[in-house]
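Late entry, written up from scratch paper. The run itself happened at the end of the previous shift, but nothing got recorded in the book at the time, so transcribing now.
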Amino acid sequence: MIGRLRGILEVKKPPYLLIEVGGVGYELQAPMSTIYKLPEVGSPVTLFTHFQVREDAQVLYGFYEERERTLFKTLIKVSGVGPKMALTILSGMDVLQFIKCVDNRETALLVRLPGVGQKTAERLIIEMSGKLNNVVSSENENFSRRLFEEIIDAASPRAIEEEAVSALIALGYKPQEATRAIGRVLFEGASSQELIRRALQGLARV
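Output as recorded:
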């Protein structure tokens, strides 16, 4: 079982990451809530991980905070919710927002996320009610206090835009929807992470 990785961030192409640890490159998938907080490529990084073995693949998932991993592991136990949908949920709202959503039974907010239908949203709220106290209590204080800076990518504006669009598509949005969402939030000097963040916020309000 791989529970945590500490190494050098070699690749950051949402939602995919590559971390080199002792000469070995580990490929991970991570939610945008984690990717927003990562340092620039080439910097040291530590992530909590969850390793899942399926019949067709072995996938390693990475999380900046312990509570993100705990929520992810709780979500994938819900009937009809797989890892991809769990990553989408964590990309569309942070842990505390999700807890508030469940507590207030706000299915409409969940349905706005790609791939989450009304029945799934209702099932999430029913099955997650009363199970979220351990998510908050599991937060590692040392990690929750880590400060980070928004990094401005050195790539061209066009490459940044394309990377942001690709990230939304990977999260489940349709290509045209992703392109429109990024186009609405474009501004000079933006990083791909900032564009993705703003686009997700805009999609959540639609």
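Residues 138-154 have pLDDT under 50 and may be disordered.
(Scratch paper discarded after transcription.)
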